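step: validate -> pass
step: tokenize input -> pass
step: predict -> running
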Amino acid sequence: MAGGTWDAPLWSGTFFLAALPTTISSSVVLVSMGRGNVPAAIFNASVSSLLGIFLTPLWMGILLIGYKGGFSPTQAILQLSLQVLLPFVAGMMLHKRYGILTVRHPRTFRLFDQGVILLIVYVSFAESFFNKMFGGYSPWHILLLCAAMLALFFVVYGLTTLMARILKFNSPDTTTMVFCGSQKSLVHGTAMSRVLFSGFTATAVLLLPLMIYHTLQLIVTSAIVGRRRQEVPPLMW
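step: predict -> pass
step: emit ->
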């Protein structure tokens, strides 16, 4: 944006958004609704989430070393392994015995999951508002950021669609590629931000591009999934 609107925190937040892995639940649900290749979507989302623990800190290390001289990608990977990978492995181990609880009480666990994310976001924004980090941003700046995130989504969506055509994917695989390739995980973003951006007072500003992109991706993909479903014959699904 001209005139310094797109400043360092927003650039960093956009770079962070690009470095994040895809979603798990929402991308799989969208692929299923769009008659895509669900097993491939589950595999892609799972591998992306695991690789993100290692690749996201490495990508962010390129950027954060300039802002934070003591930043160590290796240390960040270790912390993320403890905070993200360890709970994931523990959950897989406990699922066989206690997984029935999530089936019996899906709403309770979903609200708990969403509540944890909301709490992390709230703390980040409260800290940034307390330090007056949003003082230089007007509603016009937010609208421009929304437009930029919407444009970014369609660029990625278009590139994944083009790549699927070049690779001559069939309709179900194309649906899987475009939905998994264009989604970004708010869950991983909020968890990783507490590690990668620890010590930064502008964490909420850094999360702003991700939160806007995540909201827009839900709205846009909900509108697109119906058209994708019509393009896939029922027999192929």
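step: describe -> Residues 73-104 form the longest helix (32 residues).
step: cleanup -> pass
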